[in-house]
Design goal:
There is one protein chain. With 166 residues, the chain is α+β, with helices and mostly antiparallel strands. It has two domains: 3-105, NusG, N-terminal domain (Alpha-Beta Plaits, 2-Layer Sandwich), CATH 3.30.70.940; 118-164, Roll (SH3 type barrels). The protein is 16% helix and 43% strand. It is built from three helices and 14 strands. The protein has helices spanning 15-24, 70-73, 93-105; strands spanning 3-10, 29-30, 33-40, 43-50, 55-61, 78-81, 83-84, 87-88, 90-91, 118-121, 130-136, 142-148, 151-157, 162-164. Strands 1, 2, 5, 6 and 9 form a five-stranded antiparallel β-sheet that branches. A five-stranded antiparallel β-sheet has the order 13-12-11-10-14, with no helix packed on it. The radius of gyration is 22 Å and the shape is elongated. The protein starts with a strand and ends with a strand.
Length: 166
């Protein structure tokens, strides 16, 4: 029974729901994700986001005794099986293996701010001041190096009150 990977288009922000419901029906799925930091409710939180928003991969049997693909279309979170013309969009096994390898080797989450990155304070008494991100301290705050009265000063700032500069 030849198994191939195919592409599923999901409803907005429902990739995980689609994966969960397809797997409950016995369809092997793969949803590549990125781990990164974001500001959530005023605090830095580590989140997982789909690498390809609104898309995930499903492994389907193409043999003569294969079960019907029809249930996929009515699965919660699924919009459709992606097609090129009349043919479902088949994805090379090598690409799936490479995505899984990259995801496994990614390690820790992508940081919201990196040491040495230019930032701007967006709130408080120092709103509009530009500085250099130094580090996070142990109290869910960030240390930013700013120039004040012709000297460099470390300023503790809430990470939610910072934005990246190009």
């Amino acid at each position: 029974m030849p198994l191939n990977w195919y592409l599923i288009h999901s409803k907005p922000r429902q990739e995980k729901t689609a994966r969960e419901h397809l797997e409950r029906q016995g369809y092997p799925c793969y949803l590549p994700v990125l781990r990164l930091e974001k500001i959530r409710r005023g605090a830095v939180a580590e989140v997982e986001e789909a690498l390809f928003p609104r898309y995930l991969f499903v492994q389907l049997d193409t043999g003569s005794g294969a079960r019907s693909w029809a249930p996929i279309h009515s699965t919660q979170g699924v919009t459709r099986l992606v097609r090129f013309g009349l043919e479902p969009a088949r994805v090379d096994e090598g690409l799936i293996a490479e995505l899984k390898s990259q995801e496994a080797s990614a390690g820790q989450a992508q940081r919201l701010f990196e040491h040495g990155q230019r930032v701007q304070v967006t709130e408080g008494a120092f709103a509009g001041v530009e500085g250099i991100f130094q580090m996070r301290d142990g109290q869910a705050r960030a240390m930013v190096l700013i120039e004040l009265l012709s000297r460099q000063v470390k300023l503790p700032v809430d990470p939610a009150a910072l934005r990246r500069l190009p």
